[in-house]
Amino acid sequence: MRQHATDAHTLSAAYALGALDPAERAGFEDHLRECDACRQEAAEFRETAARLAAAVSQAPPVSARTRVMAAVEGVRQLPPRLPAPAAVPLLGGLRRKALPLALAAGVAAAVLGGATVWQSQHAQEYERQARQSQRQLDAVGAVLAASDARTVHGRAANGAFTTVVASPRRNAAVFTATGLPAPAAGRTYQLWLDHDGTMRPAGFIDHDGTVVLSGDPADAGAVGLTLEPAGGSARPTTTPLLLMALPA
Fold first, then answer.
1. Where are the domains of the chain?
2. Which of 87, 162, 203, 207 lies 20 to 30 Å from 120 when distance is taken between CA atoms?
3. Where are the alpha helices (DSSP H) in the chain?
């Protein structure tokens, strides 16, 4: 699909997630050579997507390797695979509408890939976790794939690396933390949205990971992070570990 020059700036997320066809990718890479803003944005999207995958990944069961190795001898060999017919490229617009699903599938693979051999007694728990992760990934993917998504990075006072990706059009934002120390017993990390000096609750994050901010980010100027009593507070009760301006 041919892109007008004015459309090139909207392809950073699709490029970072590998969702462009070869012609679009080549055209966008030509654009990247001349556009510093898109180079930086594409790099930020790749970095954020990698952290999202790492944040929700889970280690496979300890017994998985033993069971797989024990089953190898009983697995029938399959005939050689023939090359699959070439797929007809999807239209660029339809592909970008499907980006949340593409992102969800990619990150869900990180969540579930190591648990290919499930232990039957844990199957229901894995399925529950998968459904919960899928709902979160759908919401996160919708923000990351938005054509107006913008990214900002920060560093919390406790050393955690943080990222906020916001989409004004969707009136939604996601918060990612990496290297967040575990809170003490009876404490939790609480997120806030700063509305002209008034801090309003925006959710919780207990460890490294990604959450969709609750509330109304469209009218907020910054996102904050504090350490609060378990269950949260109506207003911050401690000095903010982070107060970062939302991406414009």
1. 5-59+93-144, 150-245
2. 207
3. 12-16, 22-32, 36-56, 64-71, 92-97, 99-112, 123-144
